[in-house]
Amino acid sequence: MKAFFYLLIMLLLLDCSSVRTIDSWVNKDYTGYSPKKILVVGLTDNLTARRVFEEQLVLSLEERGIHAVESFDVFKTEFTSVRQTEENIQNEVERLAHNGFDAILISAVKGVKEKVAYSSDIYRRDYYWRRFRPYYYMYQDIYLDPSYYEKYNIYNIEATLYDLKEDNVKSLVWVASYDIVDPKAINTTVKDYVKSIIKSLENEAIISSNVKQ
To answer: What is the mean pLDDT of residues 84-99?
Structure first.
């Protein structure tokens, strides 16, 4: 019986290893907006995760008829490896606009929360909690056995789309917030995250839902 409950907990944890869309907002001034050339940027010091994210999102955008480019192919190495001044960033923006980019999509981790779950035999008979002795006996392991506790992280990630042709407070086209729960494998997690971004952009009518054959 205990093996069954361990299996149940594992299934629940696997189900939690997913991407959840928390919120999505679009600037109403950009109704009918359709970017033509997007630079995709993953702001993370995990170079593997960044490259996988940029590659997958670029591919998904290209499948929908939008020219997209990875920041790895555009930014100089020193631009992402050291802190930049506002002037340096502005110069880079002007260079991007000069090279035909009209939008930039940035993904960044906003925060991380650590959560704790515990596994317990949830299928107890009602009479166990009516008497102290059996109740205490059955549930004491929750406090005495560390294996009952399972720690996992929730990453809050924000994706934003900016219009590079505007340089004011109205240049923000779209922003969405996502929670990534207990990520295990980079490829699987990034794949789910990219799907969520694409779905949000489609729902806001920023990109087409039609995939090119």
So the answer is: 89
Between CA 210 and CA 202 the distance in angstroms is 9
Q: Considering the chain, what percentage of its residues have pLDDT values greater than 70?
A: 75
- pTM score above 0.70: yes
> If you write DSSP's letter for every residue of the chain in order, what string do you get?
-HHHHHHHHHHHHHHHSSEEEEEEEE-GGGTT---SEEEEEEE-S-HHHHHHHHHHHHHHHHTTT-EEEEGGGTS-HHHHHS---HHHHHHHHHHHHHTT--EEEEEEEEEEEEEEEE-------GGGGGSHHHHHHHHTHHHH-GGGEEEEEEEEEEEEEEETT--SGGGEEEEEEEEEES---HHHHHHHHHHHHHHHHHHTTSS-SPPP-
pLDDT level of residue 13 (50, 70, 90 thresholds)? very low
